[in-house]
Amino acid sequence: MKPRSGSKAPWKQVRYMPTNIPGAPPGVVYYTTVIEVDNQRSPKGWRHVAGAFAAGVHGPLSLVPFLRAEPDFSWILRPGMTATVDIIRRKHRNVWKLPTEALNQLPDRSFVSSAAWRRWKEEEPEGWNTVWILDKEKGPQPVFVRVRGVNAQGETGIRDGQYNEVLEWEKGFTPSPDNPPKVIISFPQIEQGIFDKPTKIGLG
To answer: Does the predicted model carry a pTM greater than 0.70?
Structure first.
């Protein structure tokens, strides 16, 4: 957890009594976790204070309102306040990540060339996944990636439900950070009919 002060907060205790939260995805179980936070007072906060003072010259006094700014040294975290907590277990830097949707695409044959379709069906290595890259000249092309297993350091890839770390690209395919590949995350669904072929492809 990183409050505005920039301090870090390790978790102190996990209470293994499962809790269900209304509206949560089915099958997801939550556990109450105690986070230890070094609460601090706001060093740069300001607040406006309203008031009035009495004024008068040779006559009745009248109240003159005023508004002034003064330092606010209140606590950053207060009782009852909600906070967002990110629990970071490990980090991998300078790696590629792919949307989960890109790993589960089954395109209709009418959207890809015969060569791309044949390569996808015949050459995908066992234990690897196929992602479809949009090529300006050739259209959607299959690229094989490995997201399961371990990397060169013997560690599994990091995934969070939305993205998956790429442990290895197929031989001969080296993406550039300056020109990342256009990964397809959705193919249109084809309905039965002559005039029902959609034309839009989703990119990630």
So the answer is: no
